[in-house]
Amino acid sequence: MVTQVNAQTQHLGDFTADETSTKENSQQISFSFEAASGEAFASGTPFRLGAILENAVSKYFKRKQDTFSNFLKRSFFNQLIPIFQNDMDDEHELRYSIADDQYEEALAGMVKVHKNAILSEEWMKGNYVTEAEVTSLVEKELRKSPYIFWTIPENFYKEIHCNMRLNINEPIGADIETLTTIWDRLDQRGDPRADKVLKAIFSKKGKNLDAIMGGATAPKAPQAPTAEPVGKDMMASMGNNMNVAQPA
Predict the structure, then answer these.
(1) What confidence tens digit (pLDDT) does each residue in 74-110 have?
(2) For residue 231, what pLDDT is reported?
(3) Please, is 34 exposed, middle or buried when counting C-beta atoms within 10 Å of its C-beta (0-12, 13-18, 19+)?
């Protein structure tokens, strides 16, 4: 005999108990105890039990973070770096505009390359010019253009050594708060070390303060008068070296 199934609710408490059991089971599987969610423990929960749960939750999520960070590191070294090396294998040029964040850093590297070449050439001629003088002239000449070009030779990236520091499970909030307090006190006193602390704060946040502020301009010491022929020779030397200098 076929009869209709009785779907009428007999005991509402059964549904409530089933819902509660499902919720507790999911919390245990995902380690979403009150210690992790920030909720207050149930009344009568022993303090020792709360400490054990908090320790278990901390270890569980730290292991999850470590697993994920290892995956990102493997992806970086085993996939992204080889792809980059293959795609950038040919000789090419890097162009930096004055509006780019890396402009000041690229400019500093270009100044260093040309400065060293010019100093060597001038000293070989017997013109003992100062490093500060050449640096000033090179930087002045390079800043005449809104662009900087680096010529990257073929297979330049094949032998590069890469390293990375992935901050995924290290709390930085407390460090930033401490550094901010130190910076505030140093800044109020006019202590020059405040700039270094401020750079450390931005570094903790993964930002480059020099790129944001456009680089720091150091005061230049007054230079002794230089003979006109030396200045002309250096400018001519700069013109010759600008086209052949390669990134160090």
Answers:
(1) 888 888 888 988 888 888 888 888 777 778 888 888 8
(2) 43
(3) middle
DSSP class of 4: -
- Tell me which residues of the chain have a pLDDT lower than 50: 215-232, 234-235, 240-248
Cα separation values, 221 from 42, 103, 113, 131, Å: 69, 24, 22, 12
Locate the domains of the chain by residue range: 12-85, 91-241
Distance in angstroms (rounded) separating the CA atoms of residues 167 and 126 = 52
Decide if 99 contacts 155 (C-beta within 8 A). no
At a CB cut-off of 8 Å and minimum separation 6, what does 63 contact?
Answer: none
**Torsion over CA: 20, 26, 31, 32 (sign):** negative
CA distance 15 to 223: 88
Cβ atoms of residues 103 and 176 within 8 Å: no
- The pTM (predicted TM-score) of the whole model is 0.46
Q: What per-residue confidence (pLDDT) applies to 94?
A: 85
